């Protein structure tokens, strides 16, 4: 058991069956679910009553001559129990398929955000060159098209409040879109088992107003970190860049070594060599994690080259130094 606190789950509560419907398409999913659920319950009850009645009515007794009649066929009955389910199934198919098309084909005016899944983080690339990790920031009342791919194994992007879920597949692009009806923070899960860190591969969709979104696009660039002391910047990046999915700060082991007390320690590598954990080693472990892997851990960390600038790397090193 680890004592690392789990990230708070940000699912907005709704009715009995579903969390609150936040996207414009969510009600379609809920409606068809409820239709199928209630149709199944009603048909099940009718069938059970009819079967029970027939069991009683046609039970074998000396007076009951029905069993001797050898009835083998009834055209009216056969047509009835073929046509009714057929109509029902075709109706559900039409409803489901037209809803599927609506959910799959984004409106022409949708703005595009690229999503990259890798073990174990979500990376988002915005049209203006911004990047964010673990947090997808989108404007409210605006159709957003996600073009998604994976760098390693199958992942699945799932936002329960949006009823949006689709796999991310290596070497190909999958698409999905949504339009949020209100502002707020909503949980992203990975819904495809992808290895040790799967259950920690979470993120947040932050739905903001259009003006807040423009402000965020400006402020979240590299300039935003200027003026923040390095160790505080590092502490912020620890969660915003997703380091927390695999590294604890309290000494408990996760997918990767804990950062607590790591600075200045001597690590044994998988090769048997030893290495002192200093600034250079930490830097190398961020940009090229497979270069020197600590014994007892898998070489699964994605390289952060290009995802962290020099000041951010320095910030993380200073933060790690403080974790004694
Ligand atoms: Cu990514 Cu499970």
Model description:
The protein is an alpha+beta fold and 324 residues long. The protein has three domains: 79 residues, Orthogonal Bundle (Helix Hairpins), CATH 1.10.287.90; 110 residues, Immunoglobulin-like, CATH 2.60.40.420; 94 residues, Cytochrome c-like domain (Cytochrome Bc1 Complex, Chain D, domain 2, Orthogonal Bundle), CATH 1.10.760.10. Helices cover 32% and strands 20% of the residues. The protein is built from six helices and twelve strands. Bound molecules: dinuclear copper ion. Dinuclear copper ion (CUA) binds next to loops.
How is the topology of this model organized?
Elements: H1 26-57, H2 75-104, E1 111-118, E2 121-125, E3 131-133, E4 135-139, E5 143-150, E6 155-159, E7 164-168, E8 174-179, E9 184-190, E10 203-208, H3 210-219, H4 230-240, E11 266-268, E12 274-276, H5 279-287, H6 310-322
Parallel strand pairs: 1-5, 4-10
Antiparallel strand pairs: 1-2, 2-3, 5-8, 6-7, 6-9, 9-10, 11-12
The protein binds dinuclear copper ion.
Dinuclear copper ion binds at residues 117, 155, 190, 192-194, 198, 201.
- State the helix count: 6
Shape: elongated
Largest sheet: 5 strands, mixed
Let me know the number of strands. 12
Whole-number tally of structural domains:
3
Mean pLDDT: 86
The assigned CATH architecture of the largest domain is: Sandwich
Approximate helicity band: 25-40%
| End-to-end gap | 22 Å
N-to-C series of helices and strands = HHEEEEEEEEEEHHEEHH
Return the CATH class of the largest domain: Mainly Beta
CATH homolog superfamily of the largest domain: Cupredoxins -  blue copper proteins
């Amino acid at each position: 058991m680890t004592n690392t606190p789990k990230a708070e789950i940000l699912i907005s509560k709704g009715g009995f069956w579903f969390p609150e419907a936040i996207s414009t398409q969510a009600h379609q999913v809920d409606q068809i679910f409820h239709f199928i659920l209630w149709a199944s319950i009603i048909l099940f009850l009718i069938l059970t009553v009819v079967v029970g009645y027939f069991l009683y009515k046609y039970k074998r007794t000396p007076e009951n001559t029905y069993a001797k009649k050898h009835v083998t066929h009834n055209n009216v009955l056969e047509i009835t129990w073929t046509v009714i389910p057929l109509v029902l199934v075709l109706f559900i198919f039409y409803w489901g398929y037209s809803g599927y098309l609506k959910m799959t084909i984004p409106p022409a005016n949708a703005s595009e955000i690229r999503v990259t899944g890798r073990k174990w983080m979500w990376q988002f690339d915005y049209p203006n060159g911004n990047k964010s990790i673990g947090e997808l920031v989108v404007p409210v009342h605006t159709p957003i098209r996600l073009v998604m791919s994976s760098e390693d194994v199958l992942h699945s992007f799932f936002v329960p409040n949006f009823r949006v879920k689709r796999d991310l597949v290596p070497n190909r692009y999958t698409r999905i879109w949504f339009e949020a009806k209100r502002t707020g923070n909503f949980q992203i899960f990975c819904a495809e088992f992808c290895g040790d860190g799967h259950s920690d591969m979470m993120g947040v969709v932050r739905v903001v107003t259009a003006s807040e979104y423009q402000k965020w696009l400006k402020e979240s660039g590299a300039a935003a970190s200027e003026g923040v002391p390095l160790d505080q910047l590092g502490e912020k990046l620890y969660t915003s860049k997703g380091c927390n999915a695999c590294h604890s700060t309290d000494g408990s082991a996760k997918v990767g070594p804990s950062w607590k007390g790591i600075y200045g320690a001597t690590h044994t590598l998988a090769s048997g060599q030893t290495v002192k954990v200093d600034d250079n080693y930490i830097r190398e472990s961020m940009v090229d994690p497979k270069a020197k892997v600590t014994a007892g851990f898998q070489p699964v960390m994605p390289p952060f080259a290009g995802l962290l600038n020099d000041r951010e790397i320095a910030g993380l090193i200073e933060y790690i130094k403080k974790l004694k």
